UniProtKB/TrEMBL annotation:
<dbReference type="InterPro" id="IPR001509">
    <property type="entry name" value="Epimerase_deHydtase"/>
</dbReference>
<dbReference type="GO" id="GO:0005739">
    <property type="term" value="C:mitochondrion"/>
</dbReference>
<protein>
    <recommendedName>
        <fullName>NAD-dependent epimerase/dehydratase domain-containing protein</fullName>
    </recommendedName>
</protein>
<dbReference type="GO" id="GO:0044877">
    <property type="term" value="F:protein-containing complex binding"/>
</dbReference>
<feature type="domain" description="NAD-dependent epimerase/dehydratase">
    <location>
        <begin position="53"/>
        <end position="253"/>
    </location>
</feature>
<dbReference type="Pfam" id="PF01370">
    <property type="entry name" value="Epimerase"/>
</dbReference>
<dbReference type="InterPro" id="IPR036291">
    <property type="entry name" value="NAD(P)-bd_dom_sf"/>
</dbReference>
<dbReference type="InterPro" id="IPR051207">
    <property type="entry name" value="ComplexI_NDUFA9_subunit"/>
</dbReference>
Amino acid sequence: MIAGFNLAKQSKQTVAGLVQKRFAHDLIVSPKTGRTIIRTGGGGRSSSNGHVVTVFGCTGFLGRYLINRLAREGAHIIVPYRDEDDMRHLKVMGDLGKIVPMEIHLRNKDSLEAAIRHSDTVYNLLGRDYETRNFSFSDIHVEAAGVIAELAQKHDIDRFIQMSSMNADVDSPSRFLSTKAEGEQLVRSIFPSATIVRPSFMYGQEDRFLARLAMSRGLSVRINGGMTKVRPVNVSDVATAMHKMLDGYNTAGETFELVGDKVYTYKELLDYIKETTNLDIGDINVPKPIASLMAKAMNLLPWQTLGADEIERMMLDDKLTGVKTFKDLEIEPSSLEITGIQYLRRFRTNLYSDEPLKKGVVGAKKVFHTSYL
């Protein structure tokens, strides 16, 4: 062991006329495959952390945050895409040549295999909030996940990290959640050391959670009287957790439920949005059967709307099942009350700025004092 450390200390590399030393902590040996991963450089995007990572679903909401964290350490990242316009913003996140786009099709196994054959880590972030004519929930969450896990096992990938969802359950009334649970089981049966990640509703820039509540004028949040309890989590915290799993071999084979620091009802969230944005959001409650019919009708529109299955999910409380959480990754989740303003500020009307300053209040109409469970 000592000889190994001395060897690592004596290892040198000449770059641009400078001598770079490599130390023992620059070397990582995979306990699964014995593959050696060596860091080079002084750190940052122009260095290399030795990893080649494939991120399926990278063009989605969470993908950009995860790739940003991987790229700033110098990882080589394979970016599988279907539409070239969807991945252009990812290319500038890494140094020249570090972000490698590859066109894929989920029903073309050869294209999927080409995207992972040179990688040591695979993230599967694939997921859909609604079904389309081309892809059902089962196609994305089960069949595609199974094929990717099978290929990862075939090419002896070190780490496989599967994105699932909070409340995933094969017996769930929501097809989204039941297929997510089926996907978990299939991935684990093929790749036993896979890490399963179950985040709650994620919020952040361009999300489909806080933004939808702010734009909905209260219609969507009055399902179940607005009393469904959720634990929304900052997308940056989820990306940080998944980034730590890259070298966290102690997370292999584990399941993580990533939730925010507090429990909120939809009604409390709407009150917070009202006071933060000064929006006049209504309080109409819509019974579930009527809401489901409305969602089905809106799905006939040519653009993305609220799906009927999402109505089912809005009826379910977030419940922890006793698996690992942010605490096991030594991460303190962000507070929605502190960070939410970053994402809601753009919804403020001109009336917010026209409000006169009130005694004891600086830069805001009111202060949010609602207590949470």
